[in-house]
Amino acid sequence: MRVAILGAGAVGPICAVLAARRGHEAVLFSPSGAGTRGIGGRLRAEGLIAAEVPVAVAATLAEAFAGADAALLAVPAHAHAALLPRIAAALPDSLPLVLTPALSLAPLVLDGLRADLGGAPGRAPLGAMATTPAGGRRIGPDAVRVTLVRSEVPIAALPAAAAAEMGALVQELFGTLCPAATNVLEVALGNANPITHGALALANLTRMERAEAWNQYEMMTPAVCRLMEALDAERAALAAAWGVRVDGVAAYLHRANGVPLAPLAEMTAAIAASAGAVMGPTAVATRYLTEDIPFGLSAWLRLAAAKGVAMPVTAAVVTALAALTGLDLAANPLLDGLDPAALGGALDGGVGRG
């Protein structure tokens, strides 16, 4: 298959490597053009995957979509507000697209934009992954270091009934097993990164400010784990109020790192002792703050307000981080156009599809 991968930071090129190693043709598109500069037709991977694979580069969305059998959107959530309208205008009705990760109900926003532009009711489904198939770092213009390959990531879809179909597509393209989630809201709440990254950012902000080197799992101390557990409990209550279920942080760490289930602080200590060092951010300008808080914790607070669910610890973390950094961590242009209290049938049927 030919897969158009929209996003050329780290995750997009890593996914291109995954697809190419499975015999598929990957074409990369960078929204700014900067991410594909220096890619001369091949990508090199090191780390958990050592390979050199062919990859095509598209200068425009139309070029990326031409001849594609599927598309993957792999950009930070803060880029969605500017990019989703461009995608909605260019995406063929017949082309299925998967968002990874699908934070802040971005699939509903994209589906609404496509409906507004006259998209066919029977257009191809949208997929929504709870997190990315893999992770790592960009180490050069045409090189990536792969530090994480996920074996399993839940997926939802619009319409919701297409989740299994979209999961099979992702597995064929990237090798990731994708169990079907109830709906895109379950996926939006299912990503544990806002919890782990939010707690780590709050507890290690001065390290980030001073550009110190720090190991993330070593810094998941018992105190930080207590904060993560409190955030996790509030997220579970929010999910229950919306009629969905999410796995806890312990289950997430178990799946991602293979450590036995245990009290959270014991799990993080075991990961720190056995895994290679996973270093934390060395600047305040990190997605831990610019993505995981506005499009994670703050978005959850909006959903909580619609159901009357109290999330005092979550609100306190957002407030404290905003005060410490001077950033507006509540701003979320994706949700500004959605009324969380009126999601209704859109979670099941999508927008303008029936």
From TrEMBL:
Pfam families assigned to the protein according to its UniProt record, in alphabetical order: NAD_Gly3P_dh_N (PF01210), Octopine_DH (PF02317)
Top-level division of the source organism's lineage: Bacteria
GO BP terms: glycerol-3-phosphate catabolic process
Molecular function, one GO term: NAD binding
Keyword Oxidoreductase included in the entry's annotation: yes
The entry's keywords: Oxidoreductase
Domain Glycerol-3-phosphate dehydrogenase NAD-dependent N-terminal: 3-98
E.C. numbers: 1.5.1.28
Ranges for domain Opine dehydrogenase: 181-322
Protein name stated in the entry: Opine dehydrogenase
Source organism per UniProt: Neoroseomonas alkaliterrae
Lineage: Bacteria, Pseudomonadati, Pseudomonadota, Alphaproteobacteria, Acetobacterales
